[in-house]
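INPUT
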Amino acid sequence: MINELLKHTLRLILLLFVQVLIVNNVNLSSYVNPYIYILLLMMLKVNVPKWQSLVIGFLLGAVMDMFSSTVGIHMFATTLLGYLRPRILSASLNKEDFDANIEPNIANKGFIWFFTYAASLIFVHHCSLFFLEIYSTKEFFATMQRVLYSSAVSLLMIILAQFLFFTVKPSDD
Amino acid sequence: MRNIIVFLYKYYNFILFLVLEFFSLYLIYQYNTYQRASFINFSNGVSGQAYSTVANFKSYFRLRQINDSLQLENARLRSELFTSYYNNEIRDFKVNDTIYKQQYTYIAAKVLNNSINKRNNYITLNRGAAHGVKTQMGVICDNGIVGIVMATSQHFCTVLSVLNSNAKISARIADDNAFGSLVWDGNDPTICRLYDVNKHVQVANGKKIVTSGYSTIFPENIPVGEVQAHSLEAGDNFHTIKVRMSTNFSNLTSVYIINNFFKEEMDSLEILTKIKLPDDQ
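OUTPUT
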């Protein structure tokens, strides 16, 4: 338990460091603002209770809001993520995965599963985040473009990070 | 009663979810009506420290550029010094100056954090309430406008960048008194748009755009940029003007916060006018 807490705290610090000091400073275009800090929430173990997933999402959003001079928008998006995560997991994983209490990463579940899992969560997060940032539907298509381009880059970065930290076993399915 | 407890127990996850989301929405709503000073002050204290450490490192990489721009500015200021003017006056006399009263002072500040690629951008500066910074003060740099102070803590302040959907700045075409409001459309950080300039005004590419001085935030004639393109739709009463900004937001390092001594007097007078108006009608 203590080990688990320590691991996630270190992960939080590393992700915040990368997000705030590196990713936020890379100006690719005004349409590309990747957010990779949600990886922390995505990689919690599958048996983490639903209320914990919600509260961790909420707190993660609060920390991110602090570093981006915004109020509530990251909070809303990550809480939504914390709510959806257990539901997506229970819909797409089988009983053995829950019994073994695995971490939903690319090494345990393979590329295709992780790609779908990450893509759906990233899209929901970016959608709510960018629309709340604008706080109007006036620039709907420009915002939608922002969501799509940013989601694609976030997904790419998150998957690259997975390959960097985990060895992917050759898929047998 | 028992049923309520059973209900709460059964759906406590969903209820917790709703509570947290409504709390976030409440905060977002508050923010959009600009009632957010307390929360921002707290976050400034925490993240301001982190950003100032990083800014210390980053400033080393830009030393050469900063030196160049400081040298240029020094040269310009030196040329404005009294001693660099040739005194053409024949008689020497003294006037006790009661006509000119100082209206603006400037607080030099350093940029700790800045973004240009979001739809709503903010800047963090290393000056705060302890240095006399208050909300609604204007911020400029050597060659143009930067933004408006939004919240202050003891040693830091956050600035609403011109590159923000909530920023609207009163600007006019230089040597013409036609004014309009300058807003950023969210695409290119070097281009803003000037709206509400009446169609009878002659607009030409390359004309300078400056601040109008109609608000208490920016003094008159601070450079904003120049006209890059302009169009007038058939049947429209106002020009749409594309303005190339003179401020380079991507490498902002040193800025000045403007303190207007007459701000409170002007603002309270304007509020008074608004309150009195309905009585007359």
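end of record. Residues 25 and 31 of chain B are 10 Å apart (CA to CA).
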